[in-house]
Amino acid sequence: DGITFRIQIHVKELLDTDVLLKLLFHLPVNYPSTLPDISVSSDQLTRAQCMDVRDKLLEQAKKHLSEPMVHDLILWIQEHLKYTIKQSATVCNEKTTLSKGTAMEDGIWMLLLHLDHMRAKAKYVKTVEKWASELRLTGRLMFMGKIILILLQGDRSNIKEYLILQKTCKVDVDSSGKKCKEKMISILCETKVQSQHKRFQTFEVKEHSTLDELQKEFETAGLTSLFSEFVPPLLK
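Structure tokens predicted for RWD domain-containing protein 3 (236 residues):
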């Protein structure tokens, strides 16, 4: 709930090119007492750079807590994007060096979601595939009868951002055919990928005709216990 809107801004003369920055803000109902959710994307920047920009915006947002802040955040990033990108480049090697330690702490995470339905299935599936690709997430979008599951693996920060997109963007249509947000989604499990779990190499859409087929999908990935705990109850 709350308000979600997109803002596109051009930043001139950055790295010898114009950058089109696409910002997605979700303002919760108790904004500005609560910080907004922010998503950042740009065809001219890498995903890592977009994440750095998002982190910087959230840092600035904390300075404006309890007061309207979106306009100030837009002005700030227009003035500081060039510095943010340069800073991102200078710490790149340091991040690479620390990545192993960070991976040991954060590791690869896994998210299992249950969707109640998809009315505009083709568009919905295309959107999920696009988000997974942009956020470098692997896994499966699985259909079996009326059961719809999304299983994702990737960096925890990217999984968090996927959840923001899933909850704040208009991905489906309502009974009257009007675009709407996903309001009937359940997070069944969010956990760190363990050694016995197989890492998915791609994100694929799978249609299963029987529960046995769906179960084998989980078993192949070393996720038998995950299936047993969360999937059968969906049939009740």
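The longest helix spans residues 70-90.
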